[in-house]
């Protein structure tokens, strides 16, 4: 990690809230799903491909065809993945993987977000907001001649049980290694009123410090939750400092998952249900393969009343704060990827 994580954004271009909103408005025009709305999903995929290519990135489409996958249903509703199990006989989808040319070899830092939404929801927060941050981060990193190796990943079928991320994690680890991973999962909804932030059942007993911090702020939903493990604690601190430097209106609440990386952490999560909430997105397959990872989130259904509903539309997001999330993510990726 570099000694001055807040220096990077001051040297190059800054994130543009107008561009972030444009990305969200295009992607969240209607629900997108490889199974339920394939034409919309193809348009969304083409948009992401074109935006990354225009920013100077080399984009690879990596299709997958898998059978008998334990996952979830993508029907709308507020229940967590673990409460919506389904066995998928066959799934065919595709991830988009992008790199800047000439940025060297060796282990990379992956910045990823999922493109699909659940049935019936345009998915502005979940997860057009995350994809928009990936696209704007792409522009920032392409303009920086000193940026080390970063890989951008836009995953398919997260709502079916992290299907695309499972494939991408295996391939990226095999093809050159991953130093770390930053997952953007529902990052655009903020609520300043007291009482707008809720906590999962049993959360206070397992994570007393984070629970106390939320209570001390009046349960306001005005922060980004930075979920990490011991292996990614330094990256989490970098993100928090970079967010504070980017905007005083964005704070990072650090939450350490006590489980170890690798298969043991997955097994412990099955025995401790509240911990499963910390692995509900595309960082989890990287954790399960021993890769240090962060999940950035506005906590989704524990804050956003529009989660997985038809009302998850672009007008509900805070693009000023999303700009700061983007800047902090770019800073953290560069710092983490630097030797």
From TrEMBL:
Domain Peptidase M28 per the UniProt entry, residue ranges: 95-189, 276-330
Task: Give the matching SUPFAM superfamilies.
Answer: Zn-dependent exopeptidases
Listed Gene3D superfamilies: Zn peptidases
Task: Tell me which InterPro entries the record gives.
Answer: M28_fam, Peptidase_M28
Q: Residue span of the signal peptide, if any?
A: none
Q: What name is this protein filed under?
A: Peptidase M28 domain-containing protein
């Amino acid at each position: 990690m570099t000694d001055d994580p807040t220096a990077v954004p001051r040297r190059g271009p800054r994130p543009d809230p107008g561009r972030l909103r444009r990305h969200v408005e295009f992607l969240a025009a209607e629900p997108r799903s490889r199974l339920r709305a394939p034409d919309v999903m193809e348009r969304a995929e083409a948009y992401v491909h074109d935006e990354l290519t225009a920013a100077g990135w080399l984009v690879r489409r990596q299709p997958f065809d898998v059978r008998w996958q334990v996952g979830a249903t993508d029907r709308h509703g507020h229940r967590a993945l673990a409460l919506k199990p389904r066995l998928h006989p066959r799934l065919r989808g595709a991830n988009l993987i992008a790199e800047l040319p000439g940025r060297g070899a060796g282990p990379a830092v992956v910045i990823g977000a999922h493109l699909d939404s659940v049935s019936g929801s345009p998915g502005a927060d979940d997860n057009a907001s995350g994809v928009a941050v990936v696209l704007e981060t792409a522009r920032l990193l392409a303009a920086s001649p000193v940026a080390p190796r970063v890989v951008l990943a836009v995953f398919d079928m997260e709502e079916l049980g992290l299907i695309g991320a499972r494939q991408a994690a295996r391939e990226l680890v095999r093809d050159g290694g991953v130093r770390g991973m930053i997952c953007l999962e529902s990052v655009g909804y903020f609520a300043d009123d007291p009482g707008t932030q809720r906590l999962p059942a049993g959360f206070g007993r397992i994570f007393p410090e984070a629970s106390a911090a939320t209570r001390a702020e009046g349960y306001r939903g005005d922060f980004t939750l930075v979920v990490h493990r011991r292996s990614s604690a330094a990256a989490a601190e970098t993100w928090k400092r970079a967010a504070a430097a980017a905007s005083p209106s964005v704070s990072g609440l650090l939450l350490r998952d006590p489980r170890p990386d690798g298969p043991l952490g997955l097994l412990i999560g099955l025995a401790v249900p509240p911990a499963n909430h910390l692995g509900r997105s595309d960082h989890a397959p990287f954790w399960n393969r021993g890769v240090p990872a962060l999940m950035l989130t506005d906590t989704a259904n524990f804050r956003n009343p529009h989660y997985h509903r038809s009302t998850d539309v672009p007008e509900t997001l805070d693009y000023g704060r999303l700009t700061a999330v983007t800047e902090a993510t770019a800073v953290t990726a560069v710092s983490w990827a630097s030797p």
